[in-house]
Amino acid sequence: MERTPKALHMKKIATVILLSWLVCSCATKEKTLTEQNPPCEGFDLDNSDPAAIELADSIMHAMGGRESWDKTRFISWNFFGNRKLVWDKFDGRVRIENPRDSIIYLTNINTDEGRVQVKGIELTEPDSLKKMLKRAKSIWINDSYWLVMPFKLKDSGVTLKYLGEDTLQGPQLYNVLQLTFKQVGDTPDNKYEVYVDLHDKLIKHWSYFSASSKDSANWTRPWDNYQRYGSILLSADRSDNRGPGNVKVDETLDDKIFTEF
Fold it and tell me: Are 129 and 57 in contact (CB under 8 A)?
């Protein structure tokens, strides 16, 4: 049967629509986990092996994803039931309260500026203030790492190595990821090994080595009791009753938290 001009015209339109759909489908192809989780500037890409990077990206994805982490702004927690911290991820502002020593730090970890109050009196002497603000940053580096380490696997100065599958005390196998550091943080010679569940891709234990040359860990602790906070997962109130607790994630907070004692 001979096709009419109208039928031929409709066929051409259908062909154009199909080609347009195919082009759009290719253009909107979902990014890989590595593309979704680009490394921070200074991450040791050259010395980190591909299997380790792939594992780190799968952990980030299991924790809620890079986009969700980047959009998370205010995180509050206490550390070992003592220090209380509130962190403004966007602006680098941190409030640290240490009731045991009656000290309150209001600091900015990006600028190293801030204020400190000791036993109700604000420090004004420049050298003393500088020293205390340096201490505040060290507290934040340590205490935040105990809470958000899985989101920092591809940070500046980090080198990742995949150590294969291994067990701890029981029969369960884990993927083991090693973290070493290049001139970052207060203790760059430290080393960590994290034990990742083969199925849900979440870190379940972590081992700390005081020196990267050590073969035996100083300690191994659980990284468990995951809960959803906002759009991310965090491990807190862990089974060994150590580390971070009373975690909160907020979209907004009163500005006075970071400006007034």
Answer: no
241-to-57, 156, 235, 248 alpha-carbon distances in Å:
28, 30, 12, 18
All structural domains of the chain, each given as residue ranges with its CATH number in brackets, are: 41-258 (2.50.20)
Contact predicate 113/132, CB 8 Å:
no
- Sequential DSSP letters for 141-167: HHHHHHHHGGGGTT-TTEEEEEEEEE-
Q: Rounded to two decimals, what is the model's pTM? A: 0.88
pLDDT in tens, 73-111: 999 999 999 999 999 999 999 999 999 999 999 999 999
* CB distance 196 to 217 below 8 Å: no
- Could you tell me which residues are beta bridge partners of residue 87? 75, 94
Q: How confident is the model at residue 177 (pLDDT cuts 50, 70, 90)?
A: very high
